[in-house]
């Protein structure tokens, strides 16, 4: 079934996530944080939603874009690299886009990069003309090469891309990199970034217009309430009015200070900080007059 055909009306939402692998656990944890829970099925390929009519399908990440395109699942949690690759491949085959990234989820960060043997003296992409590039991301790579008018041979491999130059099946590679350890272990060095990736919530280009639409909207709102605050810290302290200006300067990256109702002692203040607060920073604030500093993690919010 193509995405343009109307999918049969359903009143339960279906989300595909990776069964095993890097994104499996964080995806599940995120959905649990959104208030979803499931009755596990024995084969664990399908988990029936208990708290809400939202079921899980546990699959290989490669299958997730196709499941959305075919209307089997409404949503999926998948790397942007996988989604973009299958999206680019569809367009190259003359098909219409059928899925899209709805939200970045802040985990599974990696980059799709070109990496060359360490001994290469890298001058820039023009050096790629006439080379053979091994990759599991042929469609993204083709688009990138075409956009730069570079004629190179794309060698598609489904795995172990990093050993291709040593085996002589390619001159360089285009692969995912996170720490860079795998490249170093294979005497390769990263030279160009094609894509900055992270896990995304993907959905159909045409959103469902039955009961699932309202569920989807609610889930997105909850997801934003978890993802957008996940690194934030609520900072609380007391300070004499004379010290507030100096403290505000030290907290320039935070939201404006809020003064809480007065009680005995120095006025109580609070603010939301965008990222973690180191001990060093807390001690700095203390020296500037903040008393009884407290840092609280923010679990969720409703805008
Ligand atoms: O079985 P299934 O098909 O579902 O899983 P998979 O083996 O295809 O995928 P999996 O679990 O390895 O990765 C799922 C997703 O995690 C990817 O599509 C990316 O979006 C994301 N991700 C984040 C990564 C990495 N980081 C990563 N480092 N995927 C793969 N890698 C590879 C990298 O290419 C290298 O070979 O891990 C190796 C170690 O990387 P370094 O740079 O830390 O050495
Ligand atoms: Zn895979």
What does this structure look like?
The protein is α+β, with helices and mostly antiparallel strands and 303 residues long. It folds into three domains: 13-108 and 199-227, 3-Layer(aba) Sandwich (D-Maltodextrin-Binding Protein, domain 2); 110-197, Periplasmic binding protein-like II (D-Maltodextrin-Binding Protein, domain 2, 3-Layer(aba) Sandwich), CATH 3.40.190.10; 233-297, Alpha-Beta Plaits (2-Layer Sandwich), CATH 3.30.70.120. The chain is 28% helix and 29% strand. The longest helix has 17 residues, at 211-227. The chain is flat, with a radius of gyration of 24 Å. The mean pLDDT is 94. The structure holds phosphoribosyl ATP and zinc ion. The site of phosphoribosyl ATP (PRT) has 22 residues, from α3, β10 and α6.
| CATH C-level name of the largest domain | Alpha Beta
Number of structurally distinct domains: 3
Spatial extent as radius of gyration: 24 Å
- Major sheet attributes: 7 strands, mixed
Q: What is the straight-line distance between the termini?
A: 37 Å
What structural class results from the helix and strand content? alpha+beta
Low-pLDDT residue spans: none
What percentage of the residues does DSSP assign to strands (E)?
25-35%
Please tell me the overall pLDDT: 94
Number of strands: 16
* Element pattern in H and E: EHEEEHEHEEEHEHEHEEHEHEEHE
Which small molecules are bound? phosphoribosyl ATP, zinc ion
Task: From the 3D structure, determine the CATH topology of the largest domain.
Answer: D-Maltodextrin-Binding Protein, domain 2
Q: In which order are the strands of the major sheet placed?
A: 2-3-4-1-5-12-6
- Supply the CATH architecture of the largest domain: 3-Layer(aba) Sandwich
GO molecular function, one term: magnesium ion binding
Cofactor: Mg(2+)
Subcellular location: Cytoplasm
Domain ATP phosphoribosyltransferase catalytic: 60-223
